[in-house]
Amino acid sequence: MIRRPKRSIAAAVAAGAAALALALTGCSPSAEAGADSRPLRVWAGSATPINNNFNPFNVDTAVHATYGAIYEPLFFFNQLSSEPPVGLLGDSYEYSEDGTVITVTLKPDLEWNDGEPLTAADVAFTFGYGPNKSEDLVSAEAVDDTTVVLSFSKPQFTGASLILGSTWIVPEHVWGEIDDYMAETNPEPVGSGPYMLKSFTEAAYTVTANEHFRDGEPAVKEVQYIGIDSNQSSQDLLATGQLDWVGQFVANPDSVTGNGVISTLNLQQDPTVIVTCSSAELGCTGPQTDPAVRQAINVAIDRSTIREKAFAGLAGEATPTFMLLPRDEGWLSDPTLEVSPQESNAAEASGILEAAGYAKGVDGFYAKDGQTIELDLFSPDGWTDYNDAAKLISEQAAEAGIKITARTVSDADYWTPISAGDFQLAMYGLAASLVADPYSTYSEYFAGTSTAKVGEDPVSGQNYVRYSNPTVDAAIVAAGATQDEATKRDAYATIHAEIVRDLPYIPVVLNASQSFFNTTDFTGWPSEDDLYAAPLPYTSVANAVVLAHLSPAK
Amino acid sequence: MSYYLRRITFYVVTMWAAVSLNFLLPRLLPGDPAKIMIGKLRRANGGRPISQEMIDAITSILGSDEGSMWDQYVAYWGRLLQGDLGVSSTRYPAPVADLIAQALPWTIVLVGVATVISFILGIVVGAWVGWRRGTWLDHLVPITTVFQSIPYFWLALVLVAVFSVNLGLFPIIGGYDFFAFPAGPEWSWAFVGSAVTHAILPATTIVLSSVGGWLLGMRNMMVSTLSEDYVVTAEAKGLTPRRIRTKYAARNAAIPSLAGFGIALGFVVAGSIVMEQVFSYPGIGKLMIQSVQGLDYALMQGVFLVITVTVLAANLFMDVIYGFIDPRARHNG
């Protein structure tokens, strides 16, 4: 606790409502006590009032500490490295030859934070419970206390990160009695992670070291998660030493790190793209259904300017293969595909359009059969980097003779047209695959099975661009059914050739994710040289791996 | 008595219309909440597929749109009369009534006190400025008007940057010090002190940006009242300036402001969206923003309903007061 000797005075004064005297005594900077006696304070992005919800099945509304700090998956797949996963509850796992059976060995003598033993029975229970029950799952059985056998109807070579890396293991003795798992708020979570819930309020909640944690209590005894409604406030709190860990966009990081207490790391992972409703066969309408138009936009935009102006120079260069480089370098089929063109090339854009039968009209815009290329590009209002990027794209395309109108829409107007396919172009963020294998990116965003006709939502997957290409589909199936690297590399080479030509997603930049952390009071943070986990407090599992690595500076 | 009966009938009809409109409005907005939630979920999940069971569960949470519009309308009234405002989808599975109950006290105390302070300050200073018209005091009018016209959030940000970040005098965010009170609100002087400290900057923002209106209105009314015959008569009778100022001029000049004050009090419950956002203050305004952005019908309706009811109640109250203090209202209304 922070000692506040002046509190009683402050209270007395406050009671008398003597505002000025109060102002001088009521709030003092929090650097009074040593770091080892105070909680680590985190803003993971929660707004107030914070939901009192620790149900790991409420993915969208449960609080951040639920994922990793309290509930854990079997293994931790570090998105930033191509190393094999780190065992959390799991010790090792093994695939059967055909990939349909996964045998997982747990670490010995595991316990839940209420002291009950954590055994293979809990893991088997978890895989058969609620939304975890995958359609492909045949059975989940505990062979003995530390061995679980998961059998599937299809090969699961590519599903390891999902099955083993993001299925939250829950105790059977608690969840066995809960039928309506979506309506549960789980206010007293029983998990296996390094922390357990201590206190909860609408403004902040505190987790405390779990004495039953398998590696012993973590060195940082308490972590307080705070609700903040504006990025500016979090920036101010960081700058005044009242917050220790934040992951957010700060255009001018020096303003936060200038005090010498806070360090920063900028990781570039997830591509920002223009999604295009690309397939006329599936019902998309508009000039963007013509690959030539998409190719022309691709070479017409000036990505270096967008990176500098819209993303404050913090974003990275995107690759049209949508892999995370250099992590996935081994899968790159052609070195020229490493980055998308960074400068605009209006002449090339004109060449592409003219070859496809377009001609420049008197208004300076290209047209075909009397139809001027006129495109609508929207982004969610308030996502300023996206909004600015869209404006720049509109200006740059105009110089190349393509008319793109940029506009902003509310969240509601953003998601609905995208999921239903009722759009032309939109700014969008793709998620890089969690492991050093782009399979999930391709199956999730490019496979024909992940899309639906315009007017319908994709049942599974996020192929909102309505991309449907039998060559790509076949290559995705081939890559998913094998562990042989050469076969996989061939399949990915096929996919690369197709998607780089068709451009259903036009890559723009690699999004920056900045993290800020207090390196003066706490040590053990990931660094450029040792990226053992992403230092982002809102990232599942990674956040808990970081917390367990930290210790108070002496 | 028929004056009051007429007013009350009017309010009952208005109430019915407002509640019905409240039912209708969210349904006229574009976008499908289930799609929004699934879209966000997919992003939050980092590409992990969402099981059909999950999608079904989400659709059932947000599937309030079953049956005909009329059936929904009847069901809506039924739930409303039982005090059931539904379950929030953005804050699932928290009941809307609970969310509002938690936010309401903060808003009412902070915005309420700030509104009262701003009104009293505006009236008192306005009366004084009007009384001493033509002197240097007149400069107060443009100064306060400038504060009123400055964008509200900008004023708040400047106050935070100067008084909290640079001088370290005030806290940056929150309704109380959650570092010192990790277990939440409690009944102690220390907590009250913390809450008061945290309220000073937000309240200052509200007062600074609204006092100008009251001041200007009061000053102008004061000036015109001072030229009334009864004031001249009072002066001729040789009454003390103080008596003329307070009992004759200010008292009558304040009547129009009082009506505005009634309406302002009604809107206290709507909170102050910008202030709450800048200071992460746990009030109602924020719930409103969140509900609209997330297409959370239940929360939206709950918040709008509470606002509607309070605005109407405040108006009714002012009508009653007016009936007492101004006989003309009773006869003409």
Automatic annotation (TrEMBL), chain B:
Keywords: Membrane, Transmembrane, Transmembrane helix, Transport
Coiled-coil regions, chain positions: none
SUPFAM superfamilies registered for this protein in UniProt: MetI-like
InterPro entries in the record: MetI-like, MetI-like_sf
Broad class of where this protein is predominantly found: membrane
The keyword Transport is assigned to this record: yes
Segments traversing the membrane: 7-25, 103-131, 152-176, 188-216, 253-279, 299-325
Presence of keyword S-adenosyl-L-methionine: no
Pfam families: BPD_transp_1
A GO term from the CC aspect: plasma membrane
Gene Ontology process terms (BP): transmembrane transport
Annotated ranges, domain ABC transmembrane type-1: 104-318
Protein's cellular compartments: Cell membrane; Membrane
PANTHER family: OLIGOPEPTIDE TRANSPORT SYSTEM PERMEASE PROTEIN
UniProt name for this protein: ABC transporter permease
